Amino acid sequence: MRGEILGAERRRFWHDDDKLEIVTSVGVGGASVTQIAQRHEIKRQQIYAWRHELKKKGLWSPDAGALFFPLDISTAAGVPVAQPAAAEVPPSNAIELRLRGGRCLHFDSTVDPATLTALIRAVEAT
């Protein structure tokens, strides 16, 4: 009796480093789990299983890519800035800004534009 192999073997072995790279690429540049799974020819559920497995091994954390930068905001010559009347202040909203390299900034919508610009430049410079 003779047999033939019809097609490529689909079972692959993934090292933890490869799994970690795939899991952390979700969200970079706005890539979804589905897009990453398609790119690597795996099922979406595999990514979720790897997340769970790597988290159990202590190799991955949802906050692993979080960066915190010290920010020193000093008032000009010690003079406090006048605050607008309470009626003029728009309600604050939480904003998430996605930057290059998978970095995200979370800030309040009432942040001063000059301060936000300085923060973005500091993050982009690293």
Elements, N to C (H/E): HHHEEH
The level of helicity is: 25-40%
Helix vs. strand class: mainly alpha
Mean pLDDT, to the nearest integer, reads 77
Tell me how many strands there are.
Answer: 2
Radius of gyration, in angstroms, nearest whole number: 23 Å
**Main sheet attributes: strand count, strand direction, barrel closure:** 2 strands, antiparallel
Coarse shape: elongated
Strand content: 5-15%
Strand order of the largest sheet: 1-2
Q: What is the terminal-to-terminal distance?
A: 64 Å
Number of helices in the DSSP assignment:
4
Q: Any low-confidence stretches, pLDDT <50, length ≥5?
A: none
Describe the structure.
- This protein has 126 residues and is mainly alpha-helical.
- The protein contains 4 helices and 2 strands.
- It is elongated, with a radius of gyration of 23 Å.
- The mean pLDDT is 77.
Q: Can I get a quick summary?
A:
The chain is mainly alpha-helical. Helices cover 34% and strands 8% of the residues. It is elongated and about 80 Å long.
Layout of SSEs?
Layout: H1 16-24, H2 33-39, H3 44-57, E1 94-98, E2 104-108, H4 113-125
Antiparallel strand pairs: 1-2
What key phrases describe this protein's structure?
126 residues, mainly alpha, two-stranded antiparallel sheet, 4 helices, 8% strand, elongated
